[in-house]
Sequence to fold (171 residues):
Amino acid sequence: MRREKEPTQPGLLVDVKRCRKNALSNSGYQIPVFCVLDDIQEFTMDDLDADFFYIAAATDDLLFTGSRWYHRCVFERLLATKTVNLDNVRFCIKASGHVESLTPAFEQIENAWQACSQNLAKEACNAAIGACGMRENYLYQSLISSEEADGALLSGEVCTHRAVDVSLICG
Fold:
């Protein structure tokens, strides 16, 4: 790794335990739940309570990383620090539903892992958060049946397995 310039002051490294989970559990903002009927609108001053804003430009700020959609918490900070001009806020969208916190869902995931020999609760919570940002969606279906004719229901093949008397194999 190469440094562009040597630091002039000592730095501080901060590692927040379970930061993704805690950010979604304790953000102070409701979590937007969008539906197909929610619509992107051109931004007006009546839309300051929207959930996401498309900001085209802002003056230098750590949180502004280019023209794109920003959550309300970033938008409010850019307004408070006067680093965004409202003329540069092009669009907004407000969700038709909101959830106060994901804490109950995270607690359910963590409780499910308590009974396991290997506790992967943190990994399971992070996987659930990651799934929220997935662009591809898949649906899998399984039909368990002993009837060969049921294969036509899913236009697939029926795999038949016969029960084996284990005592014959193991002696």
Q: What stands out?
A: DSSP finds five helices and six strands in the chain. The beta strands are 31-33, 41-42, 52-55, 68-71, 89-93, 97-99.
